[in-house]
Each structure stands twice: as structure tokens, then as C-alpha cells.
Amino acid sequence: MTLLNAPEFDARRENRKRNLLVGSGVLLAVAIVVALAGYVMGHGWAFSNLPVEHRVSVFLNTVERGDYAKAYGIWNNDPNWQQHPQRYDYTLQRFTEDFTTASDWGGPITSFHVDVSKRDKTGVVVAARINGKKKLFLKYESSDGTLSYFPMQLEY
Question: Is residue 145 exposed (0-12), middle (13-18) or buried (19+ Cβ within 10 Å)?
């Protein structure tokens, strides 16, 4: 093929190629921004910890409402826990005491805010501010979906 018999310039094809190239670049830039924003804001790369934060939020809402039996089911990831309460060493009575009178934040939960979450080898640690002042650290175990207290504090 020589210059004398070269194919005609196809403007539509060139526009399509240019638009795909620009669109791919924009999509890549948005993906990088979303991934970094989630990490910087404390919600995991690309906001990957948001489902766990939502689960903790549902749990704390249930405790705030005073429905300790349902909250205990969320804690143990077992909505039918009442059919076999002997499976759990952490009893409903102790659970209720921990979230009312014997709590570190000085009483029942009246308000909360999920602040940040960090992933570790076995799950996700979620930090929540209880009653506007005290911090509560809960650990979500990925293997069985249960919640537990986390003994250390997250720095954020």
C-alpha cells in the first residue's frame, strides 16, 4: 500500500479511539481516588470496611433501643440463639449488664457514632464513640461473623 491508495480518513473511528482512551484514563483516575479516599478516611481501601461498619451500627442501634435479646443475637451472629443458649459462655444477663450498668462509658448507650475501622488478619476492628465521649472498640471476626470486645485502642 502506498500513499496514493491509502484508506480514507475515518473521523468517527478516530473520535471513538480518542474517547475510549480519555474515558479509560478518567476511569482509572476515579478508581485511584476512591481507593485512596477510603483508606485516608479510615474505612478501608476503596471503602471495603463499610459493610462491617454498617453491621456494628445496626448492633449499636439495637442496643440503644434497649432490645438486648436481638442485639445479643447480632453479637453472636445467631438470630436463633434462644433455642440453644447453652452454647455461649457470655450469657445474655452478662451482656445486658455490660451494655447498661457495668459499662466503661457509664450507663446505657444513648448515642453513638462509628468513627473508623481497621482490617487485621482475622477481621475488622471498628471504633465507635459512645454517648459523645467514650470510645468502644469492637472486633468483627470474618470467619464466623461474631462481634467481640477489642482490648487495644486504635489510634486515629
Answer: middle
